[in-house]
Amino acid sequence: MEHPPIEILVVDDEASIRWVIEKTLAEGGYGLHFAESAEAAQRLVDGQHIDFALVDINLPGDDGFTFLQAQQQRHPDLLMAVITGESTMNNAVTAMKLGAFDYLTKPFDIDEIEALVQRAAQAIRAGRRQQPVAAEPGLGEGEPITGRSHATREVYKAIGRVAGTDVGVLIQGESGTGKELIARSIHQHSGRAREPFVAVNCAAIPRELLESELFGYEKGAFTGAVERKAGRLETAGKGTIFLDEIGDMPLELQAKLLRVLQEREFQRVGGLSTLTLRARVLAASNRELLQSVESGAFRADLYYRLSQFTIAAAPLRERREDIPPLVEHFLRLGATKLGLPARGITPEALERLVSHDWPGNVRELENVIKSLMIMTRTPVIDVADLPRNIAGGEDGKTLDEKFEQSVLHHWGALIRDYSEEGKSGLLHRLEAHLERPLIRQVLHLTHGNQVKAAAILGINRNTLRSKMQALGIRKPTGGRNARTRGKTGHDGEA
After folding, report:
1. Quick check: is 29 in a domain?
2. Most buried residue among 46, 78, 165, 316 by CB atoms closer than 10 A?
3. Verdict on whether the full-model pTM lies above 0.85
């Protein structure tokens, strides 16, 4: 299928610059247009379709920055790059703030112009293949947890089971896995949804302040207590209080919290009046609390009080099926909540995101997408826009690691679904399904040479022939051996 040429506009008042760029790009199959001023460039852009503009800053009349700024309103899809002889930080920052794709200084090499235009053309073609994600109102408000993996479906079901009760819930998982989102979802689906949701990060509040933060204090209870202050347990009212990173709570405060949970009563620091705990208490930890119990760092009785029902928040590397919908979710949030231009993402870039291990989990993914939406100057995010450690994809991994990751990525959900149905013989079935496409692919790569194919597979040629016959695999007919068959009088193999 023929693709329309990339239409490029060069805006520069120096004839020599226009001539050099024209000669450089003449054989690239681009549509080339030229203007000596911002006013002439504006007439061209308004009168016909232009994909990419190379704009000098210093122009007669309106300068290049004025032209860039005008296009933000008139032609927001126009990709633009700045060329200038004045390489200053202010110029560079201004250009990028005005939406420039890149910034090139004079004098420049021909190779630099070619590379810049090729990158722009690649981004433009990617944008033609895939439109930006359209913003959907309200996304992320009612249902904050996004995903389709088995692990996420289990979380959905757990929330449904426990939301309508008042039992203690402990949510465990690595940092960034969305433990607070799970707690909020429990609250939103409970009978307390109209009441406050109060979150307390026990690891973020200094040990000496955590007690007064939870229970509140009376005037004069300690130096600096100039007036009475209600604690988080009190302000939560009949709603939900979420104690995040509960494993970091000091042991002496654990004892006080246990008593509150048992008696449903507490007092402000320095106070005598007894207050009633009306809120539901949810807790979370990024460490395995049972191990903390065994080591003596966490009270066993408090652990069992909090963990009447447990929910596991799986790390993102174990639920890669969730990454595509999460990416789409964060792209939409970036457009609606942050007021950023809508962005799409190419399949190649999405594949790199799926392959990344995400040590920071969902929080890291969200931050990367937010950064990409700010930094990317094209409607569609491509591999070249990704951070280097993610864009590298599989580089640096051993073959065994690549095979293992491929199995986890492509077969993980199928394996879990198979086990859920209570079936047996999974290994034999997977081997049977793997063998046929594997042999076909190896034969394709060796152009039908069975000797080479058998060597790659680690079996002898007779075994390979038997498997091909049993699996109904025919030798490739369009490879090198097909071309030599008439000369050798056999299948072209040694």
Report:
1. yes
2. 316
3. no
